[in-house]
């Protein structure tokens, strides 16, 4: 049961109301791989890094069952670098620096050893890059998840719309769902997106949780109320990695199992935000994860007796 | 098992992106009584109205088991009148007109027939008025719920803080919880409020649902994703009425039963917003309510197997 993860592996400089780091490993594929590695092996990573990417991180990932055959190492350029500053509400952030570096030349090549993968997660990248990976796979994966963002809706909408016809699950946040459809109501936006190709839609709402739409069904997973969100960077990618990792592990892509996968993804994301970068994911134990999932159960379960 | 509801009975003029009404019955006690009447009788209403308040509404409420002995009718003034306009996101609104009218003289008198009530809901009113009702009750109710708003935090904070020591459940929205505590994090704000008096705190988050805090326990009830929120006026009061009505009906004020009561309140509120004013609550059937509560169950239930 293998999973291909496509995305960035990068460095970030992050400032939040709680602290500041000048350089920490990041990137959508990094977070997704750390999260998914709790559930499935191998994870077949497709990314590009520069001459500055620490071998220790690559080694750590490999020890967790992440194959790096598909990670191109460019010897004469640095890795993708992003710098941003979060505001108090943690839902808005200012991008201070975006140095594409190696990412400008990213033309992913799917290694022969990755062929036959049953699960594919396409991290937030240009629609062209995302499509080229789908096209290189001789056998269509059982489930394809695509993450994207407002930027691609603005400069590459046509390519994004084409991709939507090729995938199973779309992952966006609430404002992106509105932007993609022109609908303010999440229910209306979801209904429209489900006519564009994907059979499943996940709308991420940050501290307000996440929603899963499929046909006329809807599932709402709250976010765990946290005392502090220390650093939200990578939370969405961690969520996605936990989500698809759980699905791959259980070999069940039904709506019911996706509900559980969303809770698992939410639990992983709730750890991610506790420290800078993927630090907390690197320390995380299976036992802590199980305890946290129980917290999600306690958070939402109820029983109602209307017989009186 | 009687319930006293204290609050306004009024008229509203409402404009939303979906329509406009120049005059419709409203007021916190009106909404709360309609909602609570689905679960408990009698409801002992305490309010004040003017010479313009329709007898048909009073009669409709009485038929639903609402006692109106405590509703003062002022013969030479009109009822409290509020006019407001909602924006597209329905979470913000502009108040256009606030005519206090009879409300300026509201000095509630608890009728002798109301003594011994086991449940008390104090709708959003000045802390002085809320306190005077508590003081008139010879026997402390089993459960006292208090709703308030930012306005009272600004002009009558001292009185509000005194009241918090007299009640069991405080009901505020997220921005009010922040204002009351100076804490941005909901978890920190909740912890602080629980040291101010109330043993239970409900934080209303509109379309993002509601949270219940008690000691170290927390429960998150999502709002039902609706295609359109036609008119949110009264949703909070309807929620409160459904919440305390369910508790009074089941005679159980445990944390576990409050979780169910919050779902019931959320279900009632989800009907309230479908039409202008209390129109939808007036039409609502028991069967529709039961169906909607099942929708809440479906919305949040999941099962996770981490054994693999």
Structure keywords:
four-stranded mixed β-sheet; homodimer; nine-stranded mixed β-sheet; 308 residues; alpha/beta; 11 helices
Write a structural description.
Two copies of one chain form a homodimer. Chain A has 308 residues and is an alpha/beta fold. The first copy, chain A, contains eleven helices and 13 strands.
Number of strands of chain A: 13
Strand content of chain A: 25-35%
Biggest interchain interface, per-side counts: A-B, 44 and 45 residues
Average pLDDT for all residues of chain A: 95
Shape of chain A: globular
The helical percent of chain A reads 25-40%
Note poorly predicted spans of chain A: none
Which structural class fits the helix and strand makeup of chain A? alpha/beta
Gyration radius of chain A (Cα, Å) is 18 Å
Task: Strand order, main sheet of chain A: write it out.
Answer: 5-4-1-8-9-10-11-12-13
Helix segment tally of chain A: 11
What's the quaternary structure here?
homodimer
What is the H/E order of chain A?
A: EEEHEHEEEEHEHHEHHEEEHHHH
Largest sheet of chain A: 9 strands, mixed
Q: How far apart lie the N and C ends of chain A?
A: 50 Å
